[in-house]
Amino acid sequence: MNWLALTAGVLTLAAFGIHAGVGAREFRSFAPDTDDGAARTAWLQALCGWHWVSASLLGAGSLFLIVASTDWVRDERSVLIGLAVYFLACGVAWLGTLMISGRGVDRRFMVLGQWGFCMLVAGPAAAAAYVPAANP
Q1: Is the dihedral of CA 15, 22, 52, 39 positive or negative?
Q2: Where are the beta strands (DSSP E) in the chain?
Q3: pLDDT band at 28 (very low <50, low <70, confident <90, very high)
Q4: Which one of 1, 35, 69, 110 is at 20 to 30 Å from 45 when CA atoms are compared?
Q5: pTM beyond 0.70, yes or no
Q6: Would you say 76 and 130 are in contact if contact means Cβ atoms under 8 Å apart?
Q7: For a pLDDT cut of 90, what percent of the chain falls above it?
Q8: DSSP codes of every residue in 95-109
Q9: Any idea of the CA torsion for 89, 82, 62, 59, to the nearest 10 degrees?
Q10: 3-state SS class at 59
Q11: Please, are residues 106 and 95 in contact by the beta-carbon 8 Å criterion?
């Protein structure tokens, strides 16, 4: 059992549950009042992006658990490095977007802390690929 990959998988699947459940309900509350126009189109596009993120979290979390608990993946190290790079890139992109988004963003670094979650998952994912005890 690769405990570091299991940790990353549990964190990612927990984030999926929160994102798909609680977050989706909250997101729907922002729907525009009208069914036509640019505001509705923009909201629908953002909703589709929202669910794309949910699907990505579900897929990544499942892959972490497969690597952690089975022998189905021949090159676990490459998969874990790929997942670590993916989460690191997502965290950097999120943080970079906050940093370049203008005034008043400083207080949002903690409120919009998804970047921190991405970095948190990237850590055990990378460690799982390189720590010999994690890959017996």
Answers
A1: negative
A2: none
A3: confident
A4: 110
A5: yes
A6: no
A7: 57
A8: HHHHHHS-TT-TTHH
A9: 50
A10: helix
A11: no
